[in-house]
Write a structure and sequence with these properties.
Immunoglobulin-like, 5-stranded antiparallel beta sheet, mainly beta
């Protein structure tokens, strides 16, 4: 059974799974207006690494050229709202 790349999201977040592909970089575009935090998720090592704290528009994202990676983009406005909710602000 092959593990296929996939992508899902909306204008506030996007998750892109690379499957067995091993790119050294990938071009990503913010899914909506505003600033987005970009993380690389390594599903084998179970780690999340922040690559960019804030992007808008298009950026080339460096990757470690191995399989089992996902890219997560989340709108900073959403992250701040959730942090305020959990901290009672």
């Amino acid at each position: 059974m092959d593990i296929l790349p996939m992508s899902c999201g909306n204008d506030e977040c996007k998750l892109q799974y690379m499957g067995r592909a091993c790119p050294a970089w990938v071009d990503v575009t913010a899914p909506g207006d505003g600033e987005f935090k970009v993380e690389v998720i390594d599903v084998w090592e179970m780690t999340r690494t922040i690559v960019f704290e804030s992007i808008n528009g298009h950026v080339r994202l460096p990757l470690p050229a191995k399989e089992g990676l996902a890219i997560l983009l989340v709108k900073n406005e959403i992250l701040h709202a959730k942090m305020n909710f959990f901290h009672g602000n």
